């Protein structure tokens, strides 16, 4: 599978699971179902049931368990299967994820993305990294 499509499936899954217990759940659910109806209409009702079951699982996690990892795994598989069969669905799914990201109340990205910004003046140097960084200057 194309690495871009696999990454998109992961981002969509993470975003969806984050929104399972949030406000605007119905819009989130409707967006996923709309994508399925467009590309795999025969599976749309099943996806609706799976979304409702995932939400119930997430809401029922008040016992201290953390089902997010399991749910993300399930949804990344569903999104990846959709994209493998219909790569043209990538645009719709990407648009949906971007909509979800714009809807977060605090403006934070929900996909775990990192935004780096820096300004350098005169002879200043800027080093940025989202993970490990090794600089060997003398």
Structural class designation: mainly alpha
Helix content estimate: 55-70%
* Count of separate DSSP helical elements: 5
- Report the strand count: 0
Largest sheet: none
Envelope shape = elongated
- First-last Cα distance: 44 Å
| H/E element sequence | HHHHH
Radius of gyration of CA atoms, rounded to a whole number: 18 Å
- Mean pLDDT score: 83
User: Uncertain spans, ≥5 residues at pLDDT below 50?
Assistant: 106-111
Number of domains: 1
Strand percentage:
under 5%
Characterization of this structure:
The protein has one domain (3-103). It is 58% helix and 0% strand. The chain has five helices and no strands. It has helices spanning 3-19, 25-39, 44-59, 68-85, 90-103. Helix 1 (3-19) packs parallel to helix 5 (90-103).
Search tags:
0% strand, single chain, mainly alpha
